[in-house]
Design a protein that fits this description.
The complex is a heterodimer of chains A (251) and B (296). Chain A has 251 residues and is α/β, with parallel strands linked by helices. Chain A has ten helices and ten strands. In chain A, helix 3 packs across helix 4 and helix 6 packs parallel to helix 7. The longest helix of chain A is centred in the last third of the chain and has 14 residues. Chain A starts with a strand and ends in a 5-residue tail after the last helix. Chain B is mainly α and 296 residues long. Chain B contains twelve helices and two strands. In chain B, strands 1-2 form a two-stranded antiparallel sheet. In chain B, helix 3 packs parallel to helix 6, helix 6 runs antiparallel to helix 9 and helix 7 crosses helix 8. The longest helix of chain B has 44 residues. Classes of the chains: A alpha/beta (251), B mainly alpha (296). Chains A and B meet through helix 2, helix 3 and helix 6 of A and helix 7 and helix 8 of B.
Chain lengths: 251, 296
């Protein structure tokens, strides 16, 4: 079992507010790591720091170390464009571009120019297939992405991310805006995706974390209270606060 | 009178007042259009439509007069066209900078300054063109006429720039942040996000700002009356003196022409033509907006 991302003593600040306190954890390759915890506990901030999305927020500062293969993510000189190609992200609400389905999936390769044009069609198909969307959209690839349902849009966003050939997938509550059927589809999909990718998923649903993840981290007030195998964490939590949370005493 | 009845009466009377108010503005518009077209009709009983639209000399007050409107049309479009080379790229560029690159602080300072540019009376731009832009052009190209289309176009372009910038920026700011984040998360640079995601997503608003700026340039009067000259010339050479439709109308309105005479009617026929041109442009703008509108 290989470590893909190693987080050491991560402290995160929005101005004067400290959102993450001394987080250290390891993300293992080809596993699904779920991050749970009540709203405002820092789990979303945590994944935003992995692909440096916090750069877009004024006053956000991360200190400590996040190493990803040979790269130090938090280093100022890290090429974030390159980093975000390798660490893809899917957001809470589906956010397709106001373009056709094809254009959405091929957006990344068209910008990066590292895939020859003759391979685009194959990439389009394989990305949509991996996101198990292909059969639903193959007859209308040139229609606007906005013509799809919410669940389909979210899978399109996954396909769009996969098309840039990332190694890691960050998912920030990807099913929170979806109905149960669409949610089930995405969960099924995750099972497939972990064969090829390392997945980190933030979820506010403990059931979801228990169903799909291999490892779980429990965040509370900016601290990582407990981290371990999902099975262990849910059956025999070591910390009283974890137990209180997963048995539904708060949150 | 019961309370209910009183309330009903109040509501009704207010409704009627509001209807009257809107009817006044509708009637005014109808009145203007009717005057324009009535006088134009009279004009065409004397001058043939064919002469008006196909001959190349516009000299209604000369003896013998000639009524070919093409020089005025060409002058108008020449200036609108040339000015768009300034207003559209610079306006869109400023909008992209303001919405995608500028920090909140920079935007707070720059946007009001840009909008101030829109508040300058057009006559000031006219004198600016004549006394500042024209000498610069003439120092580079000495053969340029004192009154020339280029100088006026530059001033019209600067005047309509803030409109493009402000409306385009509004359209771009209206694109939801989630779409921007999605693009950044796929490894896009700021420029790529702006050009490949935000501009296309805001295209309906940007296109509308373009059309508005161009129709504003078509209707612009004072700058062209001062800086472009009063010589109706059928030319595409921006260094020559030209006259636009609006420029002609100002000129005629200031001179003493007899009411009801054919010269008098030319003002209306040119006005009607100008009205049709801007109407068509507004329709195009509407069409562009509707065709490209995205609902988020």
């Amino acid at each position: 079992m290989q470590t893909k991302i190693r987080v050491e003593n991560l402290n995160f600040y929005y101005g004067n507010f400290q959102a993450l306190k001394n987080i250290s954890m390891e993300i293992y390759e080809n596993k699904i790591t779920a991050l749970i915890g009540p709203s405002g506990c820092g789990k979303s901030t945590f994944i935003k720091s992995i692909n440096r999305m916090y750069d877009l927020i004024d006053g956000a500062v991360a200190k400590g170390s996040i190493s990803f293969d040979e790269i130090e993510i938090l280093d100022k000189n890290t090429d974030v464009v390159e980093l975000r190609k390798r660490i893809g992200m899917v957001f809470q609400k589906p956010n397709p571009f106001p373009k056709s389905i094809t254009e959405n999936v091929l957006y990344g390769v068209k910008r990066h120019g590292d895939v020859p044009k003759i391979e685009w069609l194959a990439l389009l198909e394989s990305s949509l297939k991996k996101a198990s969307l292909f059969s639903e959209v193959e007859h209308k690839l040139n229609q606007s992405a906005f013509s799809l349902s919410g669940g389909q849009q979210q899978r399109l966003c996954i396909a769009r991310t996969l098309a840039t050939k990332p190694e890691v997938l960050l998912m920030d509550e990807p099913t929170s805006a979806l109905d149960p059927i669409a949610t089930a589809k995405i969960e099924e999909l995750l099972e497939e995706l972990k064969k090829e990718y390392t997945v980190i998923i933030v979820t506010h649903s403990m059931q979801q974390a228990a169903r799909i993840s291999d490892y779980t981290g429990f965040f509370l007030n900016g601290e990582l209270i407990e981290f371990g195998l999902t099975k262990t964490l849910f059956s025999t939590p070591k910390d009283k606060r974890t137990e209180d949370y997963i048995t539904g005493r708060f949150g | 009178m019961t309370k209910k009845k009183k309330r009903w009466l109040e509501e009704k009377s207010i409704e009627w007042v509001l209807i009257m108010v809107s009817v006044i503005s509708i009637l005014t518009t109808v009145g203007i259009v009717m005057t324009l077209f009535y006088e134009s009709y009279e004009f065409f009983t004397v001058v043939s439509i064919k002469e008006f639209f196909t001959t190349l000399r516009w000299a209604p007050v000369f003896d013998p007069p000639s009524f070919g409107v093409l020089p005025l049309l060409s002058g108008t479009f020449l200036i609108a066209f040339l000015s768009s080379f300034i207003s559209l790229p610079l306006g869109l560029g400023s909008a992209i900078y303001l919405s995608e690159f500028a920090s909140k602080k920079a935007r707070k300072i720059i946007k009001p300054i840009l909008e101030l540019l829109a508040g300058i009376p057009s006559i000031v731009y006219g004198f600016f063109a004549l006394t500042f832009i024209t000498p610069i052009i003439r120092s580079v190209l000495p053969d340029t006429s004192i009154y020339n289309a280029l100088s006026a176009s530059i001033a019209v372009g600067i005047m309509t720039l803030p409109m493009v910038a402000s409306l385009s920026e509004d359209a771009m700011m209206a694109v939801p942040d989630s779409i921007r984040q999605g693009a950044y998360a796929l490894g896009s640079t700021k420029l790529e996000v702006a050009i490949h995601v935000i501009v296309p997503a805001a295209f309906s608003g940007i296109g509308a700002s373009f059309m508005l700026a161009i129709s504003r340039a078509v209707g612009e009067t004072m700058i062209v009356a001062i800086a472009a000259g009063q010589t109706p010339t059928f030319t595409l050479n921006p260094l020559e003196s030209v006259q636009t439709m609006t420029g002609f109308m100002v000129n005629m309105a200031l001179g003493d022409i007899q009411q009801g005479s054919i010269e008098f009617k030319t003002v209306f026929v040119v006005g009607a033509l100008l009205f049709l041109v801007t109407l068509v442009m507004n329709f195009i703008a509407k069409f562009v907006i509707q065709k490209n509108r995205e609902v988020y």
